[in-house]
Design brief:
This protein has 332 residues and is of the alpha/beta class. It has two domains: 212 residues, Spore Coat Polysaccharide Biosynthesis Protein SpsA, Chain A (Alpha-Beta Complex); 98 residues, no CATH class. It contains twelve helices and nine strands. The longest helix has 32 residues.
């Protein structure tokens, strides 16, 4: 029986799933003690074919596919966990590439008793070639885009609110419950709230490293952060005490812009709006110039500010829309 079950939620990932599986095959942890369980949400591209090709070329690594008929991430995680045979669950993402010692360091941190759920740092890289993808990756790994999310910045070992993906003993699911399938995003954060409420530790270990490929275009970025904001609001209705300053600022900023626009017929409102947006643009442009110089990529002067603004407005608008939609349904 394998000691570690690596679970991967997956949908239409034929461009990246092969690289993820190759990185797992190259782990320093013994292959005989690992299995990979891919929970596929009925992919319509070549994902299944890529997986089958990998299975044929690498029979020394156990790779299985389970169906996720619900086609949402928390359900994908639950179906994979139910099928897992290992004592330890290590979640990965089809958009990621773990470092060779990723699994070994996850198991070590659990064996050392660092936490009940352990995770590490993301090295965020562009999801495609070009100046747009480069700007998105830079924004997603900068405090303006990531807030104080330690795993995206320069992490130090310690207890945290949440970790990306996470590794834990399968028995933890029996103690705190499975992933909430009614939350179509923020399911990992909500899971970690329950872990912490049970008196357990969520531990960030910088030895656990993986490459994460950011979205490749602004449209995909907006959809991603709108979804994050929308479902974050649903989670905050259950756990209002989990709101952090980095999550509070974007909806407040978006609300202030909407309010001032609505009252723009009044001169003081127009002046305040102009001052607010001018200051905002100044900060973004200054940060974009700094990133362009730091990374040696002049195009970041333009793409970085646009990416950060897309993150702020889509996250903030998604959260506000979700809150008002929930209030409307409650009143109805």
């Amino acid at each position: 029986m394998p000691k570690v079950s690596i679970i991967i939620p997956c949908y239409n990932e034929d461009a990246t799933i092969g690289d993820t599986l190759s990185a797992i095959h190259g782990q320093t942890f013994p292959r005989a003690e690992m299995e990979v369980v891919i929970s596929d949400s009925m992919s319509t591209d070549r994902t299944r074919a890529v997986i089958a090709e990998f299975q044929g070329a690498h029979p020394d690594l156990a790779v299985r596919v389970v169906e996720n008929a619900a086609r949402v991430i928390p359900a994908a995680l639950n179906r994979a966990i139910e099928a897992a045979r290992g004592e330890i669950i290590v979640r990965m993402d089809a958009h990621s590439k773990p470092y060779p010692d990723y699994v070994e360091n996850c198991v070590r941190a659990l064996d050392e008793g660092r936490g009940a759920n352990v995770g590490g740092a993301w090295e965020i890289q562009p999801g495609a070639l070009g100046w747009v993808a480069a700007g998105i990756a830079a924004a997603a790994s900068h405090p303006l885009g990531a807030g104080d999310a330690a795993y995206r910045l320069r992490p130090e070992a310690g207890a945290v609110d949440t970790v990306p993906f996470g590794a834990y003993r399968k028995s933890l699911i029996e103690e705190v419950g499975a992933f909430d399938e009614s939350l179509l995003s923020n399911e990992d954060y909500e899971f970690n709230v329950r872990v912490r409420r049970a008196g357990k530790i969520v531990w960030l270990d910088p030895r656990i490293r993986s490459v994460y490929y950011a979205r490749s275009d602004f449209g995909a970025l907006v959809k991603q952060y709108w979804r994050y904001g929308f479902w974050k609001a649903r989670m905050l209705r259950r756990y209002p005490e989990t709101l952090r300053w980095r999550q509070f600022l974007p909806p407040v900023f978006v609300a202030s812009v909407i309010f001032l626009l609505a009252f723009s017929f009044w001169l003081p409102a127009r002046i305040l709006l102009a001052v607010e947006l001018s200051a905002y643009l100044f900060v973004l442009l200054a940060a974009g110039i700094h990133q362009a110089a730091k990374r040696g990529q002049p195009a970041l002067v333009f793409s970085f500010p646009v990416a950060v603004a897309a993150i702020h407005f889509s996250w903030g608008a998604g959260l506000l829309y979700s809150l008002f939609a929930s209030l409307g349904s409650s009143n109805g």
